[in-house]
Amino acid sequence: MQKSNKSIAGYHLLMILSSVDGEFAPEEGMLVQQYLADEFPFKMDLDNELEVIALLQPEEWKGHFEFHAQCFFDDSTEQERLNFIQFAKTLIKADNIVTDEEHTFYTLLKNLWKI
């Protein structure tokens, strides 16, 4: 896999976090849109990124997630990671249900970043 920059890596992380429970809730979609607006103030074509994520099989999610967590880590400050973790927490709570899968991936991210 080719290394991603922080913003693209964050997109991958959020999309996996919002999909691991088998449902992409509208509330989660709104938060991902907010992230995109904040990270990409200019028009960005993420169709290729979305296709990569959509083609992942559930058994591939963890490895993909870990890879992009490392990409984000490499290009971010500690404060950016803390802000992202808080945003990720808001994302998994957006539909008022935090599944075991969402919690597992959220915890994985915190552990990978030693937060």
UniProtKB/TrEMBL annotation:
CDD domains: terB_like. It comes from the Bacteria. InterPro entries: TerB-like. This is Tellurite resistance protein TerB. The lineage of its organism: Bacteria, Pseudomonadati, Bacteroidota, Flavobacteriia, Flavobacteriales.
